Amino acid sequence: xxxxxxxxxxxxxxxxxxxxxxxxxxxxxxxxxxxxxxxxxxxxxxxxxxxxxxxxxxxxxxxxxxxxxxxxxxxxxxxxxxxxxxxxxxxxxxxxxxxxxxxxxxxxxxxxxxxxxx
Length: 118
Ligand SMILES: [Zn+2]
Prior knowledge:
Layout: E1 2-4, E2 13-19, E3 22-32, E4 35-49, E5 56-71, E6 80-83, E7 87-89, H1 90-102, H2 109-117
Parallel strand pairs: 5-6
Antiparallel strand pairs: 1-7, 2-3, 3-4, 4-5
The protein binds zinc ion.
Residues 50, 52-53, 55, 107-108, 110-111 line the site of zinc ion.
């Protein structure tokens, strides 16, 4: 879902993104005419690769992510997503959050158990 920044209301609205087995329920509202607040509740699972053996496995995800999106360049020093063309792309925001979970270190059950056994 893509929305033009200036068309986003100040009242809370919802969006939903489903990525395979992961359901992302989001809410968003404009905090000021250049800043948007987004909250995403992620639940389900994503497929990640084990950092030890390289096997793909399902990682359960149950997370709430709060973030800000600014219209154009932001001077605030927080972790803010800057939207370039005055369009907010919620699918892209969700995908980037999923990618940031994926780049973390993950160990499959087998490797986790072997690690504990030492
Ligand atoms: Zn493994």
